[in-house]
Amino acid sequence: MRILYLISLLLLLLCNQIGTAQSKTNSIGKTKWFDPNKSASTYCNPINIGYNYTTENHNGIPDSRRSSADPLIIAYKGDYYLFATNQAGFFWSKDLSDWKFVYGSFQRNPSDDDQCAPAAWVVNDTLFYVGSTWKKDHPVWKTADTKSGRWVRHVDTAMLPTWDPAIFQDDDKKVYMYYGSSGKLPLCGVEVDYKTWLPKGNQADYEKLYTATEVEDIQRPYGEIKAVVGLDPAKHGWERFGPNNDMEPAPWGNFIEGAWMTKHNGKYYMQYGAPATEFKGYANGVHVGNSPLGPFTYQKHNPMSYKPGGFVIGAGHGNTFADNYGNYWNTGTCKISVKDRFERRIDMFPAGFDKDDVMYSITSYGDYPTLLPNNKRDQTKGAFSGWMLLSYKKIATVSSSEECMDVQTHRVDTGGKKVFEKICYNPQNLTDEDIQSYWSAKTDKPGEWLQIDLGRKMRINALQINYADHKATQHNKAMDIYYQYQIFMSDDNQNWTLVVDKSKSDKDAPHDYLELTKPIEARYVKMVNIHNASGLFAVSDFRVFGNGLSEKPKSVTGFKVDRSVADSRNAMINWDAQPDAVGYNIYYGIAPDKLYNSIMVYEGSSYDFRGLDKGTGYYFAIEAFNENGIGPKTNLTVSN
């Protein structure tokens, strides 16, 4: 009996300890202003996932850096699943904000791609998955237990060239595949037998495809394969290659890639990315047809998702999906492109179809806090939270700074030539709204810090910490990658309040977005490093959002659009600089009620715009913004 009593007592003590530990775990990091266990109502681009580090010597570049691109998000059984290039797995979320990683790699050799530009899709309530290849050795995978990371082979060998694939099942249950990535050839599409993954039709008609070895021959249409969408950069300015659509002729061609199909009101919206992932004008376009394989007609409103300015730059090669409330979203690829031209991140914007069935995506203030969905809503005006950027060009002080150094960069602005640039890691990089620059401390040790002076007391609603990969040593995925830090705020730079406590965090959050549970007013914001994932403690931009509690800018004056007579794809846009403005948003569209596209410009009073279509008239307007809010839009300017 005594032994039984002692065992019962030990079990009771153990249960109490577990309960106490769980209670502590649930409250770890909670402050008066921030609760890590509370669901957010907003998110902020780039999407905050644990971007994988590239494999060693990826693309012949030895530097360690994170990257991913070519995303797709699908809703499946009430959750959201995010698949993207070379992540050694995928991510899932209940709310499009808090993403959890599931390991599921298909890498065969240490230097190989894992799954490049993968496709995932639901057919008859089963989730299927395939990566990109020009070869005939790629299996198609499926799973009934998604969150386990375990997949089984649906077919051993996909005979079709699944490069940048997209899969679509129509209402009649027929399955179609679209694919292609080329500077010369169009995207292709074909109906497939999803049980065998062979194209429909006489297999003898595909003999040339099955035996072809050159990429251009593999991507040509054979049998019942159709050429569905191609580029026409001579007419469509945004489809031109170059940093500002300005490299004609294109050295490698104007690239079309990233197919995706969406059906709406009986119409088929064939989407694609162009003209190249490393440029600010990387965008998603759309053609519309009455059947899954066309013919398709270029939508007058194009590109349908476009973000050439701001902190996050680029919106091409993604997908369109409906959330659990029926709202549409468009994902895309944004660029950093310094350590590697394929150094990239992922973004997501509100999208939809208007009353005229015109497909659109709203990217205005698309790298500021954006409202997550909680009901069905009209997204033609976007989903901006109204929280303004408070930290732009504000004074930053730091614990230490790395010395300037000559670095071999891999930009393509010089036609693809590798060049050495002198790069400095100064504190002002923390607030310059340039994702390509960053500050770095001299070490990764606990106690390294950065501090922002907002200039006066302001109301703070959210923060975003964009870590940089400086002297990182990690390659590929590891499960012990995480960040820990604390954020303090002050009115006088003397008395500090702990606002965010992530000293016990175990999450890999390279673009950590922190929505406060309630706003706080402060002038000084200080971040203290505790643990860095890999390399030195380095941050691209430390962004503070809320309201400056002062006057909004006035309406912009002197706004005019001078469209080139010699080349109507181009226009020079000018306005009078506003003394109370931080930046400007230029809106344009094909009708007064369709100003869906926008261009964010910080400071300045002009913009060289080269993204118009010949033969299309446009309407333009501009608004100024600052840390206190957004000024009124100007009257419409017409450009025919």
Automatic annotation (TrEMBL):
Residues 552-640 form the Fibronectin type-III domain. Keywords: Carbohydrate metabolism, Glycosidase, Hydrolase, Polysaccharide degradation, Signal, Xylan degradation. SMART domains: FN3. Residues 430-547 form the F5/8 type C domain. Residues 1-21 form the signal peptide. Pfam families: F5_F8_type_C, Glyco_hydro_43. This is Discoidin domain-containing protein.
